[in-house]
Amino acid sequence: MASSKKPRPSPVSAATAGLPGRVLEFLQSHHAAGRRLCVGLSGGLDSVVLLHLLHGLREQAGLALSAVHVHHGLSPHADAWAESCRRLCAAWQIPLVISRVRIDRRDRRGLEAAARAARYAVFAEQACDAIVLAQHRDDQAETVLHQLLRGAGVKGLAAMPPERPFDGGPLRLLRPLLGLDRAELAAYAELHGLVWVEDESNLDPGYSRNYLRHHVLPAIERRFPAYRDTLARAARHFADCDQLLDELAREDAGRAMVDGDLRVSALAALSPARARNLLRHYLIAQGWPAPPADWLDEALAQLLTARPDAELRLKLSGRSLARYRDRIHVFEAAPAIETGEWSWQGEAVLPLAGLGQLEFAAAWGEGVSQARLIAPVTVRLYPGAGQIRPDCNRPRRSVKNLLQELAVPPWQRRQLPALYCGGQLVWLADVGVDCAFQAGPDEPGWLIFWRR
């Protein structure tokens, strides 16, 4: 059951009274994040304390402060939480956005991950310089332990940084309370008579983090009372390791990349650990999620042992990785083989559904002969077999051999638009115009450009 709560009595120390100064010091050391701060306000103890601290620092730090509450609709008390946030912000004259989202309880990522993704999507829409979240040292310790039990690498074990870019854009994410314990926040709430709401799901041990919080960490604290500091220090060590691995991967990528593609031979020249690090860095830089360790091992093994002429395809989270010769290519999704036929009737631009468009530009003495291009003229996907003669001084050649010489990957060959006149192949993208249809030096022609 959710309820509005006043804090239980806890000792009010000089350190507690000095929390505003510590938060101000954090803001001053992260001034590059900007002055328009938006607090992610759940209505719980932590975010209410954070909002109160920033509210008190508005004038001194020159802040333009706002808040956003994400209404997940997962609890029967969600409306009451939103109303509590509304009353609080109205009393403190802080602009508030309440955003309702829909969470699919069957989401394969799990309920917690789906709700987090929905929150962050809302955060990204806010008109501010930085989103400010209220995670503290207890949360950091839970995160490190949780990631360790999941078998995460150093990036996961680095846990939550105090500041980071938000989805690669100018927006920043700040966590000014990471150096504070939850007990310090509770004492601050008592000192200032703050009121918050409790989320009943925080007591459900069915969620892994709740199980750690209520069953595992209390036992650890009895034996290791300084575990919060210890795990936070470990997170900083892991963050340093992660930064060094990223720097090493960027250094390796400078030697291993050609025209934006990663060379297989460059991976083969590295130690297995260094090759995995480079491949992981490359995929993440292409917008992929961090690949699991077992997938990365298998991908690297296949990339290094496949024949140069093999068409190797690996998939992860709706994305596709392929090898052709010495290059690695990545796609948002596995390239689809499009079908269809389009009639060309002289227009300057011919859209090709799923394949971009063809552009026709009038020329003189080059391109496709206008006189020989007699209706019906059609464009369709090249079937992958047959011959063409793009060089009138040489015999007709197999299209397959020409495309191999041009280093066109196999999956792109199956998606090349081809222009036909009366059933005869006139022009093929990436190859050129057949000799029989090439414009003479004294006649008009069409230059054809494929815009993908």
From TrEMBL:
Catalytic activity as recorded in UniProt: cytidine(34) in tRNA(Ile2) + L-lysine + ATP = lysidine(34) in tRNA(Ile2) + AMP + diphosphate + H(+)
Keywords carried by this UniProt record: ATP-binding, Cytoplasm, Ligase, Nucleotide-binding, tRNA processing
Residues that bind ATP: S42, G43, G44, L45, D46, S47
CDD domains from the UniProt entry: TilS_N
Highest taxon listed in the record's lineage: Bacteria
Gene name in the database record: tilS
Family: Belongs to the tRNA(Ile)-lysidine synthase family.
EC supergroup of this enzyme: ligase
PANTHER family recorded: TRNA(ILE)-LYSIDINE SYNTHASE-RELATED (PTHR43033)
GO molecular function: ATP binding; tRNA(Ile)-lysidine synthase activity
UniProt remark on domains: The N-terminal region contains the highly conserved SGGXDS motif, predicted to be a P-loop motif involved in ATP binding.
Annotated ranges, domain Lysidine-tRNA(Ile) synthetase C-terminal: 377-450
Any GO BP annotation: tRNA modification
EC number(s) on file: 6.3.4.19
Name this protein carries in UniProt: tRNA(Ile)-lysidine synthase
Organism the protein comes from: Sulfuritortus calidifontis
Keyword tRNA processing: yes
Main location: cytoplasm
InterPro entries: Lysidine-tRNA-synth_C, Rossmann-like_a/b/a_fold, TilS/TtcA_N, tRNA_Ile_lys_synt, tRNA_Ile_lys_synt_N, tRNA_Ile_lys_synt_subst-bd
Compartments in which it is found: Cytoplasm
SMART domains: TilS_C (SM00977)
GO cellular component: cytoplasm
Its biological purpose: Ligates lysine onto the cytidine present at position 34 of the AUA codon-specific tRNA(Ile) that contains the anticodon CAU, in an ATP-dependent manner. Cytidine is converted to lysidine, thus changing the amino acid specificity of the tRNA from methionine to isoleucine.
